[in-house]
Design a protein that fits this description.
By secondary structure, the protein is mainly alpha-helical. It folds into 3 domains: 2-48; 51-89, no CATH class; 94-331, MetI-like fold (Orthogonal Bundle), CATH 1.10.3720.10. 72% of the residues lie in helices and 4% in strands. The protein contains 13 helices and 4 strands. The chain has helices spanning 2-46, 69-74, 94-125, 128-142, 146-167, 178-202, 206-214, 219-230, 232-248, 251-256, 275-280, 291-322, 330-363; strands at residues 53-56, 62-67, 82-83, 88-89. A 4-stranded mixed sheet has the order 1-2-4-3. Strand 1 and strand 2 form a beta hairpin. The chain starts with a helix and ends with a helix.
């Protein structure tokens, strides 16, 4: 009997050990895929700035050179041909970065209040049968492909924006505009933010709500001051996921935001182009191995950096709001470090200059 029990215990240990190795293998496999993808994008993205490309331009002239790094970050035109003086291809994405940030700012302004209030209604206000129906609708909405949102935007949102622009006396290129793209992105982001926010609000302890009501607070005051504050960490997590999807969307944006333009689009009724839509547009015409093809990997590298920076900032805001005694924001901490470094460099330069001046006077 004891021998059987010992054998059974050893078998359990072997199964547990095998399970740990399986989980470790799957974890390493998933992590390695991410590392390989990032490494591939970075290597291909840096290639246009170091590898010389020899191509025939549209006018028949022969060009050979690399991409201009300075124009890549500051240019207001994606393809500005070739500069024969510096032997640089002029591909700029500075305006694309700003346009992407503006579009996502519009999306956040439209999506976050709508999503959070809807999640609060589903979780704390609506009757259970209605809440189940609304949850099912949100889940179905999150499963709709992005191209369907783009088709809906072309058939419904674009005509509405065109009519609205005419009513306000504003000019709009047939309704395809920055505002149309922001509304389509809002429809795509809302299900993600609602789902995560509902889960966070459902996790608020009932005792907290009952304590608030017992102290004389109304149901509305309890929902806004207790429930939302207690669930703010989960709500911010949903916002981060939604913003990540919005930054990486290309298909629907290309369908409702218009054709490529140069410069920054500040007017909400004007067409715009973002990093993702520019990477997608005319990619079928780009020859693999050419500058026009490889520079899209450089734009993809910048897009990953942009998403990473956005996530860092939003996570910093989430952590700042979640703690009782929050530390300064990440930007403030970086600014403080840079200030200290600058002051240290200035102080060191000043001491070196005073020492040099003293030695010079001593020699005289």
């Amino acid at each position: 009997m004891e021998q059987n029990a010992s054998h059974h215990a050893d078998q359990k240990k072997r199964i547990d050990r095998f399970s740990r190795w399986v989980f470790l293998f799957l974890t390493v496999l998933c992590a390695s895929v991410i590392v390989v993808v990032l490494g591939f994008i970075i290597v291909r993205g840096l290639k246009p700035f170091f590898h010389s490309y020899r191509e025939t331009l549209a006018d028949g002239s022969l060009a050979e050179g690399t991409a201009s790094f300075s124009y890549f970050w500051s240019g207001i035109r994606y393809n500005n041909r070739f500069d024969f003086e510096t032997h640089h291809y002029l591909y700029g994405i500075g305006h694309l970065i700003v346009n992407s940030l503006i579009l996502n700012l519009y999306t956040i302004i439209l999506a976050v209040p709508t999503s959070v209030l809807t999640a609060l209604f589903i979780s704390k206000i609506a009757p259970k049968p209605l809440a189940l129906i609304l949850k099912s609708g949100v889940d179905l909405l999150s499963a709709i492909p992005s191209v369907i949102f783009g088709v809906f935007g072309m058939g419904v949102i674009v005509p509405l924006i065109r009519a609205w622009a005419r009513a306000w006396g504003a000019k709009s290129a047939s309704g395809v505009s920055l505002l149309s793209g922001a509304i389509v992105l809002t429809l795509m982001v809302i299900p993600t933010v609602i789902s995560v926010s509902v889960t966070a609000l459902d996790g608020v302890h009932k005792e907290q709500m009952e304590g608030s009501l017992a102290l004389g607070a109304s149901r509305t005051q309890t929902n806004f001051k207790i429930c939302l504050r207690a669930a703010k960490s989960g709500i911010f997590a949903g916002i981060i996921l939604g913003v990540g999807r919005a930054l990486g969307e290309a298909t629907a944006i290309s369908m409702v935001c218009g054709s490529p333009i140069q410069g920054i689009a500040w007017n909400p009724f004007a067409p715009t182009v973002t990093l993702t839509s520019e990477m997608l547009l005319a990619i079928g015409e780009a020859v693999p191995g050419s500058m026009n093809y490889d520079i899209r990997f450089s734009a993809g590298m910048v897009l990953m950096l942009l998403i990473l920076m956005t996530n860092v900032i939003l996570n910093d805001v989430k952590n700042h709001l979640s703690e009782v005694n929050p530390p300064p924001f990440f930007v403030a901490r970086i600014g403080k470090v840079m200030k200290k470094g600058t002051l240290a460099v200035i102080s060191s330069f000043r001491k070196s200059w005073q020492k040099h001046k003293a030695e010079k006077e001593k020699k005289q």
